[in-house]
Prior knowledge:
The protein has helices spanning 12-31, 39-62, 72-98, 116-131, 137-147, 160-175, 178-181, 188-205, 209-217, 233-252, 268-285, 295-312, 315-325, 329-357. The protein is mainly alpha-helical.
Amino acid sequence: xxxIKTVKERxxxxxxxxxxxxxxxxxxxxxxxxxxxxxxxxxxxxxLSLIRxxxxxxxxxxxxxxxxxxxxxxxxxxxxxxxxxxxxxxxAYYYYILYDKSIFTYDFFQPQFSLWFIFSxxxxxxxxxxxxxxxxxxxxxxxxxxxxxxxxxAGHYMNIQRTFTYFPYFLLGFYLKKExxxxxxxxxxxxxxxxxxLIVWFLVSQIPPAEVQSWLAANRSYVANGHEEWxxxxxxxxxxxxxxxxxxxxxCFVPKKKTFFTKLGQRTAYIYILxxxxxxxxxxxxxxxxxxxxxWDYIQLPVYAVxxxxxxxxxxxxxxxxxxxEGKIVDYCILPFKWIINKYKPVFQRNEEIEKSA
Length: 358
């Protein structure tokens, strides 16, 4: 009897969700430059912030199973830490030229713009070794997420604030099972999702947009944001609940079957890492927010976002950038050493055999 192995087909739902969420990140970085032009734009961008990064982190955590397999750390150093280090240097030099700075500065522990997510991703994957050994790990992650806000010295350096604030989302995703995602795929869930969106939008709209933004940025301590009350951590807990609720609502509307952008959802790393420098360049040399005077000026921003994600996820871009973004440059660098080792390996083996027999 033939032993036929069944190949597990990739679920398009997760790739669809990742693509949409990364598109929303790109759109947000276009909108953030004009958010002060109108209260509705500010509130809309804040609401997107409730969805995009928390939901993206949850799905990333879900796709991070098997952390205890052999070679896990080496794999993540190559695929995450090496690209982070390379683009830290590249972007530091690029922004030095773009903004015509007088001094070139570089710090490994000060993530450039959107690269904070890449640095934190590596840290989250390493934290799994600690938190999965604890009793009630999700509760501990939540405690650390709320508690880090009370530490005044914890800020953007080493990305400590964001790493621990977003870690509960990552750990939640890690512990979620595929069966639990089936809930959002039901048709009845869409109605629940719509109700959740309306309720959360109303609640968040009662808070000043600038304050909402500071909570969602999660890059400074409570004191640095002007909050000294001992109970202020409860507000972060409230935003956790808001993000999880609207994240559930978002997933209810993600396409379940293959779409034209499903394959592009497998290339989100390219979009995420590369888009920041391009958005900044467009605002320095081409887009002038101070000249916006009609609705058409604002409509161009989502058009730019669509074009940008399609270009950055295209085959030519991914083919050119693969060595850097997937860390394959490491393989190219050690290739000569592998060739030398393989060439002289028989000699070493013969020497060892001679020594053993002597």
